């Protein structure tokens, strides 16, 4: 179970949402860097790519030189394919923020067969944490799809949702294209220090309500319950409507 109360923030505009995300990045970065090591972040794809780019560009006090980026999920396509999450970050974040270097991204090797690609990403990840315990991310940035999926963990895929041993698994039947992906699993996700869902648009309102108000356990996003860490929802008025005081 989540040990701390979920923090919720509802902002009026996308700009304000990006600024709030920027301030959360400042907090998490400080927490990590004061431990004398890099700031390790797990990224999602989709709408987060442009939002995170905006958040970083609107927060000049961030010092991204010691950030290391991982992928909470990645599509099993070449790194220069338009469906690749890395490619999306390359197109937006790396282009707009030239001080962040490609070598700060720990990428999946999608030239390997899918099972190997997932196992290899787990090894790469473990190597960056340099001990044998369960890696603890400083921050995971997550999204939620209209079906309640998060990372590439989809409803009605009980084996993937129940994985307890592997930290990164292959997905072969994603209902959202492309069908083949790799994804973090819940033991890794729920061990993070901070986990932030950044959510925009009225199209997410219903799923936000089901996942975070009604805690509908059919939805993978509702199973994100950091064991010791902090869960935060940052939403715009559309997505976070349910959390606004009734008029
Ligand atoms: O397919 C994916 O979708 C989710 C949600 O994307 P969004 O565009 O609705 O924000 C994303 O979090 C995940 O990383 C991605 O692979």
TrEMBL record:
It holds the Pfam family Glucosamine_iso. InterPro entries: 6-phosphogluconolactonase_DevB (IPR005900), 6PGL (IPR039104), Glc/Gal-6P_isomerase (IPR006148), NagB/RpiA_transferase-like (IPR037171). Gene3D superfamilies: 3.40.50.1360. GO terms for molecular function: 6-phosphogluconolactonase activity. Residues 13-232 form the Glucosamine/galactosamine-6-phosphate isomerase domain. Its EC number is 3.1.1.31. Transmembrane segments: none annotated. It catalyses: 6-phospho-D-glucono-1,5-lactone + H2O = 6-phospho-D-gluconate + H(+). GO terms for biological process: carbohydrate metabolic process; pentose-phosphate shunt. CDD domains: 6PGL. Pathway: Carbohydrate degradation; pentose phosphate pathway; D-ribulose 5-phosphate from D-glucose 6-phosphate (oxidative stage): step 2/3. Keywords: Hydrolase. Belongs to the glucosamine/galactosamine-6-phosphate isomerase family. 6-phosphogluconolactonase subfamily. NCBIfam families: pgl (TIGR01198). Hydrolysis of 6-phosphogluconolactone to 6-phosphogluconate. This is 6-phosphogluconolactonase. It comes from Drosophila lebanonensis. The gene is LOC115627236.
């Amino acid at each position: 179970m989540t040990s701390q109360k979920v923090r919720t923030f509802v902002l009026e505009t996308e700009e304000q949402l990006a600024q709030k995300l920027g301030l959360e990045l400042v907090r998490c970065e400080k927490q990590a860097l004061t431990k004398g090591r890099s700031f390790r972040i797990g990224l999602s794809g989709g709408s987060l790519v442009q939002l995170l780019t905006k958040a970083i560009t609107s927060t000049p006090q961030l010092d991204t030189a010691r950030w290391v980026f991982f992928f909470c999920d990645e599509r099993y396509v070449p790194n220069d394919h338009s469906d690749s999450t890395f490619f999306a970050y390359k197109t937006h974040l790396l282009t707009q923020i030239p001080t962040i270097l490609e070598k700060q991204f720990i990428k999946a090797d999608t030239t390997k067969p899918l099972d190997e690609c997932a196992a290899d990403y787990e090894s790469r990840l473990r190597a960056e944490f340099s001990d044998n315990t369960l890696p603890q991310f400083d921050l995971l940035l997550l999204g939620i799809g209209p079906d309640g999926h998060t990372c590439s963990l989809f409803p009605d895929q009980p084996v993937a949702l129940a994985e307890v041993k592997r930290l990164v698994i292959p997905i072969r039947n994603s209902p959202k294209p492309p069908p083949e992906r790799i994804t973090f699993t819940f033991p890794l996700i729920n061990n993070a220090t901070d986990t932030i869902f950044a959510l925009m648009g009225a199209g997410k309102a219903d799923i936000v309500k089901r996942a975070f108000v009604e805690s509908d356990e059919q939805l993978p996003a509702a199973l994100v319950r950091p064991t010791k860490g902090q869960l935060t929802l940052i939403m715009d008025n559309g997505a976070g409507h349910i959390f606004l005081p009734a008029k």
